[in-house]
Amino acid sequence: MRLRYWLTRATALLGVFLLNGCTQVPEGVTPVSPFQLQSYLGRWYEVARLDHSFEKGLTEVTATYSRREDGGVKVINRGWNNEKNKWKEAIGKAYFLGSENVGSLKVSFFGPFYGGYHIAKLDSDYQMALIVGPSKDYAWILSRQKHPTQTQCDVYFKAAQQLGINQEQWIQVQPCR
């Protein structure tokens, strides 16, 4: 009976550890601070992303952020699936991991499972952002403009490269001009 108790406790602790591990800031990434959520809310266009299954084949991808009644952030990700000839949409929720003054959140699209959402670079007028997920295998470059300039994009690709994200791995969703 005592063994069962300890196995149950150990399994629960492992579960907590694994769930928290999905929200931690990856090594070498420093979330932006000071951060103002109100300035970040609204629609962003996905300029580039690293390949992952939940956005595979999507184009015209946007992320729209708004306040939730519970103080969190409503997240609506939307993209066009050419193969199925229809829009794919995912609605999630996000909450700050600590201070609202730091651009580090946890986001969920699947019940109690959260992943890290860390704003690693953000320009002063909140027009472009580099987001890193729970590891450097998940990253996005977002812009308020559908087609930012090549100069703007290069600044964010270089910042990602300095974090150890290989520029050749990016899928460019919206062409830079």
UniProtKB/TrEMBL annotation:
Keyword list, A-Z: Cell outer membrane, Lipid-binding, Lipoprotein, Membrane, Palmitate, Signal
Localization terms from the record: Cell outer membrane
Lipidation (S-diacylglycerol cysteine): C22
Organism superkingdom: Bacteria
Annotated lipid attachment (N-palmitoyl cysteine): C22
A family per Pfam: Lipocalin_2
InterPro entries registered for this protein in UniProt: Calycin, Lipocalin_ApoD, Lipocalin_bac, Lipocalin_Blc-like_dom, Lipocln_cytosolic_FA-bd_dom
A cellular component annotation (GO) from this entry: cell outer membrane
Segments forming domain Lipocalin/cytosolic fatty-acid binding: 36-173
CDD domains: lipocalin_Blc-like (cd19438)
UniProt keyword Lipoprotein present: yes
GO biological processes: response to stress
Subunit structure: Homodimer.
Record function comment: Involved in the storage or transport of lipids necessary for membrane maintenance under stressful conditions. Displays a binding preference for lysophospholipids.
Similarity comment: Belongs to the calycin superfamily. Lipocalin family.
Protein name: Outer membrane lipoprotein Blc
Organism: Hydrogenovibrio crunogenus
